[in-house]
Amino acid sequence: EGRVHGVVQFHARIVVEHGATGDSWIVQRISRVTWLPSIPRLSTLRTMAERPLLPGEYAVLALLALRPMHGYEMTAFIEEEGLSDVCPVEQSTLYTYLRNVEARGLVTWAEERVGQRPPRKTFELTPAGRELIHAWLRRPVGRMREVRLELLIKLFFLSRLDPGANRRLLGDQVGACKDYLAGLDGALPRGAFQRLVLQSKRSAAEATLGWLQAYARELEDEVVRT
After folding, report:
1. Measured between alpha carbons, how far is 109 from 129 in angstroms, rounded to an integer?
2. In three state form, how does the secondary structure of 53-87 look?
3. How is 34-58 classified by DSSP, letter by letter?
4. How much is the pTM?
5. Which residues are CB-neighbours of 142 under 8 A, at least 6 positions away?
6. What is the pLDDT of residue 221?
7. Per-residue b/e over 7-34, b at no fewer than 16 CB within 10 Å?
């Protein structure tokens, strides 16, 4: 018996043999029975599947784009590589993320046993998961507040998966930042507070643009040296 996303399954099999007399049946095993959750539960699952993925869920997919991993390996990688400074993920949160992306058909797993240890699940991307994460990694963020989280996650993984795409993403993000600043230049504040907010947004965007351009130059210098 097991529970997977609100569905309980009893795994067995029916094997029926016809008796010698033609009128007797021998039931050797019991069939698999599936209990479906109530309608509210199905509604909750549907809502979860329709909402956008969280940055942590994208990070989980990106981890599996590097290679298949089990849960402990994933949390250890996040800590050891410094990704926890941007996207801290505790063990319990990690498994919640894994259940969520599995429910969307983005991740699958296989159980394996090492020596005398209890079996563990090794997770890997499905084709749909691989397509989604590679597209997400290469797309610049649309809001300045997403730079410090989502963009850093993208740069972290692209530097390992595809350095060329990493440089292209930086270029695209610089362009998006310039477009954002141009939009601010055309804004007309209606009062002192709106003017203060606009100044704050412009200051943050200019600092972000300078940081992105400096990092892009560093990457170009590395290419020249190699």
Report:
1. 13
2. CCHHHHHHHHHHHHCCEEHHHHHHHHHHCCHHHCC
3. EEPPPHHHHHHHHHHHHSPPPHHHH
4. 0.76
5. 176
6. 87
7. eeeeeeeeeeeeeeeeeeeeeeeeeeee
